[in-house]
Amino acid sequence: MFHANRKPQTALLVAVTMMSVIGLVASDIFLPALPTIIQRYHVTPSQGQSMLGCFLFGIAAMQLVYGPVSDSLGRRRLLIAGITLFALTSLAIPHAQHFAQVIVLRVFQAIGACAGITLGRAIIGDLYAKEEAGRIFLTIFPVVGMSPAIAPLIGGQLSNHWGWESSFLFSAAFGAVLVALIIARVPETRARTTPAAGCRADRQRLPYAAERATLLALRFDLLRRLRGLFRVYRRVSFPARSTRRGARTCRLLLHQPFRNLCQRQPAGTQADAAGAYD
Description:
Growth Hormone, Chain: A; globular
């Protein structure tokens, strides 16, 4: 669903903000208690630090999965399942008997947290126009930016008063509150699609995908030419003649990719685009 004139609701903004920070909170809140966890499971410091590495790996890998799956199955049910998985694994980590179990649970915790990070932004994109979505993200991102600094402070206070387990119990409570808020206030913004509808949507996205692929190829071509430019400047001294030669080389290397792009444009806009870069 897309509503160009729809005004953001406070409960929805709170839910999306919690979705956006849940992964950052879970990744850093236990750090003040990490020495205690290392002593509890009798592992080396490098093994203890793998609790953070495996969590970040799960976050990065699942971002490639949630987007396509939510396009087919819908956002809301996948979001509820992911945050529920996050809350259950957070609750189970303090009861793990071996460190290997902690690592496995951290991976599943990351898989659940990634649902909030990925689908929260997708929901805003489904509900609001670009201008309104931009204003919403400007409101949310300062809180997201502060969360990695605030989470260790909360985790330190919890660990000092109630032990290292309290950091994960706090994450579980955070996830439970978020699940309740999603069930109560977050609507389904993308209905489940049939195979035929999915094919039509894919065909509609083909021009955009082709444009992105063209821009990506242009970017790599530009980086390749910049690398050649740096090699040229290593050999160019700074007298006036060498400087002029280096300037001509710089112009050739930087303008050629854009000239190539203009040549691929339709005939009606080719002249205007070429003039913009000349």
